[in-house]
Amino acid sequence: MSRKLTEGCIAAITSGQTIEKPVVQLLNHKKISSNNAQERYRVIISDGIHYNTFAMLATQLNEKIVSGELPDFTIMSLDQYISSELPNGRTNAVRKVLVILSLTIIVNGREVGEKIGDPKLFEEGDNSAPIPREPSVPQPVSNRNATMNGYAQPAANPAPRFGGQANNDAPTNIIPIVAINPYQNRWTIKARVVSKSAIRTWSNPRGEGKLFSMDILDESASIRATAFTDVCDKFHDMMELNKVYYISRAQVKPANKKFTSIPHDFELTLGRDTEVITCVSDDSIPQIQYNFTPLNALKDIAADSTIDVIGICQQTSDIQNLVARTTRRDLKKRDITLVDSSDASIVISLWDSAAEQFDGSSMPVVAIKGGRLTEYQGGKSISIGNNSTMQINPDIPKAHQLRGWYDSLSDQHQFSNISNKSGGDGNNKVITLKEASLQQLGTHDKTDYFSCEGTVMYVPSDRVIYLACPTPECNKKVVDNNNGSYRCEKCNQIFNNFKYRLILRPQIGDWTGTQWVNMFQDVAEQFLGATADDIGNSKDVYQGRYDEFFRKPLFKTFVFRIAARMDTYNNETRLKMTALQAKPIDFKEASKKLIRDIEKLGGVSVKRT
Fold first, then answer.
1. What separation, in Å, do the N-terminal and C-terminal C-alpha atoms of the chain show?
2. Are 107 and 65 in contact (CB under 8 A)?
3. C-alpha angle 238/242/246, rounded to 5°?
4. Is this entry keyworded Zinc-finger (predicted)?
5. DSSP strand E in 33-69: where?
6. N or C: which end of the chain has fewer CB within 10 A?
7. d(CA 115, CA 25)
């Protein structure tokens, strides 16, 4: 492999020239401290004559550093890069920073092992270096703030313009999205809209308003853009999904990571002065970019994470009509089940228009970007919200691969459902209560799941049932008005009826110890062998029958599926164990298991009669 560097390219690039794929050497790298979650790396590169200390890797290249693929002394070509101007906070002077967007490793640094030549620190204004001969490629448009290799803009046909004054010429000062920061002025980006939310409204003591947000991208990066109240309707109607626009004069501010998973440090706010010009079709701007996670890996990812997934829609439920707990707004929900080649399945929740418009009759390939991973009683699911994007049968290689894989499966193929509420594919091995304690299950930052065989020692019958709001999605305790009506303070409504809800806390034990566990409605009814209505009505009519419900499970053995986690109440933190399942032990199957264990441990064969 050649170790020849493109001598003088650092001076040429800094002066505003575009050098096609210059070859440089990485001398050093350092992680930059930042308040943002996204890591960034500063690098020192050399062309053999000069070295540049103000160069950075784009975030998509971080993995090359982390994995060790890009060690010091590596010789590489810069396939795409930008030279952006940033102010020096100490001197107020402008400093040029080289941002590397794409590179190709020519010789690994471990093989090179040393610095090539005797490069000197490049100072702006230093013209002593020879400038390499310009390659015969189109030159980029001059830009005071930034230039980018490969970003020369062709002349465009007149296009619609929104905001500002009319102008029939396409903008010339194009910068890549990765270079956007609050210190630049008079910039324009050329980007594709890859997701767009519906208009949402809000109301608080400071007033009312509405907003919508969209994710836009170019070849370098993605960024979130949001329009509020006075310009919300205008830009929502103007900007269409998958179309390319020139955008300028938007406000740049630090990204709020609470509302976006895009790694860009900044986001845009569209205002009255923002200018948007429709760009004639441009295939150089990429379509939506995914970072797919296999479905079987989701069980190990923390809830509330934002993820991209792709799979075959195997099942589609009917639409459910719900009411939002806080706003009382009518909602429509549809659940679909996706499967993929990791042999896992997961439930996806679609809402409102997405639920109404979805057609799963042909078992399509569904790609989701920005889905929110949720967890309930150990099962994982994905919710599609305003900031998510869903594509049906996208024309991408992964979709075609999945289609061929699924069509070749037999009808008997089984998938592991990680949406099961029993804890997914977690620890299903039956352990003792002592083992759970020794393993410190539930004492860490996440919920732990385990199964145990326990005998019921005691079931309290006091304060185990209450009167709850009759609406299906609300379980809040109601206030008896003593006139035949009941008030739900959460729903702020008065009802003529109620529903009974159960909360049990029995004590269970095995040969190693005892444990109090919590049980809620469905599990409590399964455990007691009666419905909450039966138990509640008995309490009001016949106390003896009511007491019998709680004596019935005593000294019986169940297999419990337990969720263990730390819980804080009244500033006191303690271990809380909740039963997700309570199944009476099958003694025949339990005996077979004991025989298998004896044979395995003793190396003997037990004679069966």
1. 74
2. no
3. 60
4. yes
5. 40-46, 50-57
6. C
7. 8
> At 571, is the secondary structure helix, strand, or coil?
coil
Sequence-distant contacts of 568-571: CB under 8 A, at least 24 apart: none
**Which residues are 592's β-sheet partners?**
none
Residue 528: phi and psi, rounded to 5, are -85, -15
Which of 527, 522, 607 lies closest to 560 in space, CA to CA? 527
Q: Tell which residue, 157, 198, 161, 565, has the closest CA to residue 357.
A: 198
DSSP run (H or E) holding 589: helix 587-602
Q: Is the backbone of residue 424 left (phi > 0), alpha (psi -120 to 50) or beta?
A: left
Contact 67, 57 (CB under 8 A): no
Task: Compute, in degrees rounded to 10, the torsion defined by CA atoms 148, 149, 155, 156.
Answer: -70
pLDDT at 291 over 90: no
- The Cα 155–Cα 13 span in angstroms is 24
Give the model confidence (pLDDT) of 430-461 as tens digits.
899 999 999 888 887 777 888 899 999 999 99
Per-position DSSP letters for 135-200, written without gaps between them: PSSPPPPP-SSEEETT-PPPP-----EESSS--SSPPS-B--GGG--TT--S-EEEEEEEEEPPPE
Instruction: Give the pairing of strands 266-270 and 222-228.
Output: parallel
Q: Are strands 448-458 and 389-392 parallel, antiparallel or unpaired?
A: unpaired
Shortest CA distance to 348 belongs to which of 313, 382, 387? 382
